[in-house]
Amino acid sequence: MIVYQEVETLIGEPFGMNFSDRSINIDTTIRCTLECPKCQRQGLRRQGKKIPGQDISIDDFIKLTNYFKKGVNFCGQMSDPIFHPKFIDMLKYCYDNNINTRIATAASHKKTSWYKEAFLANKNAQWVFGIDGLPKDSHKYRINQDGKHLFNMMKMANNLGLSVIWQCIVFRYNENDIEKCKQIAKENNIKIDVNMSGRWKNDDKYKPLNPKYYLNSNREEFYRNLK
User: Fold this and answer.
1) For residue 123, what is the enclosing H or E element?
2) Of these four, 129, 156, 173, 175, which has the most CB atoms within 10 Å of its CB?
3) pLDDT tens per residue, range 115-130
4) What are the beta bridge partners of residue 88?
5) Would you tell me how many other CB atoms lie within 10 Å of the CB of residue 187?
6) Any residues with CB less than 8 A from the CB of 63 and at least 6 apart, and which?
């Protein structure tokens, strides 16, 4: 049974599994259906540039895991890992070879049957679902995301016995819903990771109004605000 747990971290800090210096983060593809305004992907598009990269081949993936034996973190900087055409095969390979596996995803454009197959391909994997705020509102930043569908997929993974984390970044539109999100997580026995960001401009419409919910330049001051 997964014990309910809530944590508060900075965006980009590792959470959960014990990855050593012999682990690797892999951006598996160049595809994503979301248009999150602060994503590197959208930054390149605003500059009129193409998204760099390509689908990693299975052969190259195996070569990487032969060296980075401690763990694989599928967390896209330019993409969402679920859109690699062989992603489920990668999950199976990690399971068969006892490789710690963590998937960070926010896109929701896969059918329920696909998610179930992916979850069952590697029941040792940890899935981190980016749903910022209440599922009905998460599309306000994760543009094109179906938050309700993704939340149901997160519950499915949890019910199947996988390690699941609900990652929730605090924005202006959801800062008054954080306690409710924590309560929903508790009711569903899901860990929730509340993220504070410091990537704000003074006139940023996404910046929380409550300074408790954004990262100050002084790290010690940030942690004092959490108390």
Assistant:
1) none
2) 129
3) 999 999 999 999 999 9
4) none
5) 9
6) none
Which two three-digit tokens encode residue 126?
């940890």
For residue 38, give the nearest of 137, 135, 142, 178 by alpha carbon.
142
Domains of the chain by start residue, with CATH: 6-226 (3.20.20.70)
Backbone angles phi, psi at 80, to 5 degrees: -110, 130
AA identity, residue 3: V
For residue 95, pLDDT beyond 50: yes
Instruction: Tell me if residue 40 falls in helix, strand or coil.
Output: helix
Query: Would you mind telling me the total number of residues written for the chain in this entry?
Result: 227
* Both structure tokens of 46: 């605003």
Take residue 171 and report the two structure tokens written for it: 């924005």
Lookup result for tokens 């259906």: 33
Percent of the chain that is helix, strand, coil (3-state, to 5): 35, 20, 45
Q: Residue 6: helix, strand or coil by DSSP? A: strand
Residues 94 and 69 sit within 8 Å (Cβ to Cβ): no
Look up the pTM and report it: 0.86
Instruction: Kindly state the average pLDDT of the residues 144-160.
Output: 98
CB atoms within 10 A of CB 93: 19
pLDDT digit string, tens, across residues 11-43: 444 444 454 457 899 999 999 999 999 888 888
List of residues 6+ apart from 184 with CB closer than 8 A: 134
